Amino acid sequence: MKLYFKNLIIMVFLLICQLSIAIIFPDLKFVPDFILIFIVLKAIIVGPRQAMIYGLIGGLMQDCFLDSFIGIFTPTKTFVAFLAGFLSGRFFPENLLIPPLGVFIATIIQEMIYLSLKESYLFSANYLILVKELILPLALINSVIAFLVYSIYFFWQRWDLNG
Amino acid sequence: MFKFNRNSLLIFLLFLLIISGLFFFQLNSINLPFLNWLRELFYNLITPVLNLINNVLDKIKGFFITLFSIDDIQEEVKQLRRKNNTLERQILFLENINRENERLRELLNFKENVDYQLVGAKVIANSPSIWEKVITVNRGSNDGVEKRMPVITYRGYLVGRVEAVGTNSAQVRLLTDKDFVVGGIVARTDSRAIGLLHGSGRKDQSNIMDNIAWDADITKGDIILTSGLSNNFPAGIKIGQVQKVEADNYGLSQKADIGLFINSLTLEEVMIIKNFPQAAEDIPAPDSEENSEANSGQSQEE
Fold it and tell me: What pTM did the predictor assign?
């Protein structure tokens, strides 16, 4: 319970960062999805069962600031967390490129599900342009952040083990 | 290592089923009071933190701006004082004109212009998604803000509409959002072409105004205002400028690319029109012809 509470606080902090970053840097074109990065990394580290709960909470929190309590992000983020959980324990922790790759793919899946569930985009959007101009750059930004975060986590863990 | 077996699949399916059920309720606008209460609780807990962060950032920014540009500020103060004196003179002059205008209106039995009650608000948060263009402002139900109130900039450009209200904050759906639709009219005396303006969903792209009559007089450079044909927005608020006009629906109508005025600004402060629907109701009812036109416009805009 204590662990869930700690992670909840982290997620609230990440949401505040996600909401405020465009206020601090108004010219920013893409706002990184910090909550998604956290959920995917968590899924890779602890597996899908816990990650699904974090996905659900993260999605609910994000939807709160988009006018509905259970919006599109709640099921989407839960599903993405479940998928990301399959990577758990299937690679050596030294392989620093797998988690960013997971975040990259998770971003693409999340945004594609979002577009297919959003009525205003579903039939009128040019998916090729949206993927090229919005989804891929966002996925790239998210994966770069994920790489930095995972590297810090990995080296911190190693340093912690060495005492 | 996580092992995928029948149990995991069952848990996942159950989890997804519950969420999908709740999502279905939400999609069909079925009100679940507990969920609304939970949402409001979370929303009202987070927004004061956002407000605090914003205030702290503003103070830090203000401190450094003052520190590094003290000479510029002094010069600006001098200029503003000069400008203030000029404006005070102009106000006196305009007050005379206003009195004369009121007197003449009374003589001609013209209906009164409506003064909108405005409340200033600061943008404290942006959208957490690239697809939704929503901002959060630091005024809520405590300040008299309600759903569907129009929002404008200090320069009078249309920003959007209040979508959700918390105790001390509100969410505003921007004009650029893909779900946003507003009736527009060409601001030219010899052309009053009307159409529907749709959000593009992107800040770097212009909005599309379609359903313009095939023979309507609309050209590049025309200013587009809110038509006010519906009761959603007051008439005459500046929206943008026509950038390109082309035929639509195989020549049966026209559509235009509209460069929005708000795209050239950084939205830091906005104004909410608090009394628009009430004020619109206060206006003496126009004759039946105008009324039917307004009704048809409303159904079009919705």
Answer: 0.80
